[in-house]
Amino acid sequence: MTTDQHPPADWHSAKLDFSNDMSYGDYLGLGQILNAQHPLSANHNEMLFIVQHQTSELWIKLMLHELHAVRHQMHIGDLPPAFKMLSRVARIMDQLVHAWDVLATMTPSEYTAIRPYLGNSSGFQSYQYRELEFLLGNKNATLMTVHESHPGNHARLQAALTTPSIYDEAIFLMSKNGLPIDPERLQQDWSQPVKSNASVQAAWTQVYKAPEQHWVLYELAEKLVDMETAFRIWRFRHVTTVERIIGFKTGTGGTAGVSYLRKMLDVVLFPELFALRTEL
């Protein structure tokens, strides 16, 4: 008596033979993704550290995909799709906030065991994160130096540095809709970080005082506030996780670690949108 070694022809109608068709793993490139983790130590916890940062970079890649599209939609004045994308970006940031909960399971002694293998590598060197900051208006040309050894990344960052940010596009929209904005704010050096401008705050205040008259701009403002709020929480969770794991040690990339990250908490991306809340 022989045993049939062949699988059944179907299982709950699911396709089982992918010898000539694209599978789930093929479509997602899982062969490359799941083989991209290469711990340098024998320590069990290094895999967590690698996966945490790789998945964060994937989420940032998606945010950049969405935000470049947002900026385009704003530039052409088609805002409903931009609203959907901005909401998505805020929810991605929420996802990244919770990702820190996973890394926080690493204790100081566990991190100390793998730290020598990290060399000078640091999230500070993430060109995708830097591009995200530039797109949101927090620009700093000095930080471009970190990426000079990778011309492609440097060129991408240079483009983000020298073109209007998403917030700049929002200010253009207010001007196009008849709200008075100082001409110099509409023609500034785009490589400079956002600075609060009285005419911009006055325009946003007008929007908030008459939302029915400026509903699209009012909705855009709230989407931007929602996104910045999520971004602040993401930054804060980063600081608290780093302090929990390494205390006040210097970061692997040479920054002051927690002290540096705390200073970043003071950065306001859309200053007039938050300042007007006191005025209203």
Quick description:
The protein has 280 residues and is an all-alpha fold. Helices cover 60% and strands 0% of the residues.
Order of helices and strands: HHHHHHHHHHHHH
Query: Number of DSSP strands?
Result: 0
Average residue-wise pLDDT:
91
The radius of gyration computed from the alpha-carbon positions, rounded to a whole number of angstroms, is: 23 Å
Total helices: the number is 13
Biggest sheet layout: none
Principal-axis shape equals globular
Beta content comes to: under 5%
- Helical percentage: 55-70%
Poorly predicted spans: none
> What structural class do helix, strand and pairing data support?
mainly alpha
Distance between the termini: 86 Å
